[in-house]
Amino acid sequence: MKQRAIFSIFLILTQISAAQLGWKSFETEKLPWGNTFVTWERPSNPKKTLYVSQNHQNASDENDGSKDKPFKTINKAASVLQPGETVMIESGIYREEIFPVNGGTGADKMCVYQSSPNANVVIKGSIVLKTENWKKGEGWRYSKNQNKQKTRNTIWQYDFDGKVFEGYNPFGMLNLMHDREWLQYQKVNMNPHFKRRGTIFLNGVALQQVLLANELNDKDSGAFWVEHNGLRIHVKFPQNTEPKDYLIEATKSEQIFVPKVYGLGYIAIKGIKFEQCGNGFPVPQRGMISTNRGHHWIIEDCTISNANSVGVDMGSEMWGTVKQKEKGHHVFRQNTVTNCGIAGLLGMGANNYLIEDNSFDNIGWQNAEQAWESGAIKLHNAEHTLIRRNVFTNISFAPGIWLDYLSTKNVRVTKNLFWDIKTARGGIYVEVGHDQCSIDHNVFINFKCQWWINGDYGAGGSAFYTDGSDSINFTNNLIINAENTGYGSYNNAERMIGMRGGISRNQQVKNNVFVDCQKHCIEMPNIYNFTDGNVFANPNPAYIKIAAPQPIMLLDMKTVQTLFAWEKNGSVKKGIQFVQNISDLSIEPLQDDLDIETKSPIVLKKNTKTMLNPRKSK
């Protein structure tokens, strides 16, 4: 049984009908150009199966990998696996890095890595710190107050054997990104960037890292500090506990599953849990799982958790790399991505991606959004891509989805849920897209911003925001409680892409419901766009803004009807209340129509509730 989130939604919408929301039966496979997204996947039977079982009495990497003589490590299997073959992995905690040597040669001859039926396979990029190797901390002031230094709880220290890191010590390396073109040092809080990549876990829960030893004593919930050479840590355990009270783990690996050569294709990973790695901030994009610029990968039914920076990268790593002969065509399906410090899934050159039925939770906690590479999902140059039925919850210092730099070429984002997101961008943020994309039938709930970008470019706390983009179709979405704007758009005329800047025209905002958008419901950059059929619930004054031509116009629905023939089918509703509740409700993927009862309170019924977690039970 896969883990499932448990939610329910209640809306008191006394006069809003299902027809106004526009959620009828429709095809989610249709892309904006009118073509159908067709996956390349094919059913296949392995020509050979290798077995890995670390707890088997005969397990050894000297074996032949048969069921009776399995390998002990996954990486051994990865070194010999051939196209069309499968690695079947039995239960266990595997503390290793996997470097596939070969990829497949086609959809019917893939290299497959999967857990055995009902097996619990966990691969960790960490080591266990032995209880007997801890000792009382010494040689440093652990409090800014010398009196507290004498009276507060004990600090412990641990010396690493440098050999265990095998050439990569995350405790000796800063988070700081390698390519800092977009990092404005003078304006950014650099503390997250100057922390170390390594993390300490107590019973699987990450400890907070501090930058100075004298901060430790005040951290009653626990914290750790790393000495300059990265080989000794000092730890304040929670509530006067001791090392013997915990399983203590320390990250060791930068990445867990990654080919050593560029461009391998046709690899599948299924039903495996990946946990705890110490990667640095992007760019380059180097995930816990990495395709290493490969193509035609499937990552399915996996859990990716506790990456210091990036959970998964499926693209070309960064903008300065040499193009591979093939790229993209990846499938990312029914995964749980959680507790990743910067991003859940990154794709540079996202060509023909299918991202569906995933859960993204607690992404962005490193608080480095102003390096502009964060997001539960962030794609560059996306084209012919479908993102559907995903759930984004508790995202902080990051957008839910960031479609960056020409990422709107025949791209569709549909039937996703965005709930509780704190960002300087938007729940969905589209940056300089010059082609047609569709954002439709999504639910956006609770958006805030931890700080604001000054001036007209105020994206933070918006459900949707775009700059310098054309031809966006934003239709049939439900937006509830945005601290800023429901649909926001900024022209960014001076952002040059190719031979021209932004024009921000041909944007269509139709048949959406905006509830409690505190600044504007719709913010348009100019009059060369169109809105109609929207429901404005509990709007504040100036709930429709048009920035150009100057002067800025702060309007209501009646005025835009008169001036521009917008919103001929729009409506305004007042007295709407939204109540959210967590209850004991099982959830399945959304497949059918949306139903709304017309009573009070109105309930978004079973098919909407299923949207709140797209993971299928097994």
- Do you know the CATH architecture of the domain at 307-330 and 340-353 and 363-581? 3 Solenoid
Supply the number of helical segments.
6
**Assembly classification:** single chain
Return residue spans where pLDDT drops below 50 for at least 5 consecutive residues.
1-24, 453-457, 581-618
Report the average pLDDT across residues.
Answer: 87
User: What's the alpha carbon Rg, rounded to whole Å?
Assistant: 25 Å
- What is the CATH class name of the domain at 307-330 and 340-353 and 363-581? Mainly Beta
Describe the fold and architecture.
The chain has 618 residues and is mainly beta. The chain is built from six helices and 49 strands. Among the domains are: 128-251, Golgi alpha-mannosidase II (Immunoglobulin-like, Sandwich); 307-330 and 340-353 and 363-581, Pectate Lyase C-like (3 Solenoid). Strands 2-3-5-16-19-22-25-28-31-34-37-40-43 form a 13-stranded parallel β-sheet, covered by helices on one side. The chain is globular. The N and C termini lie close together (5 Å).
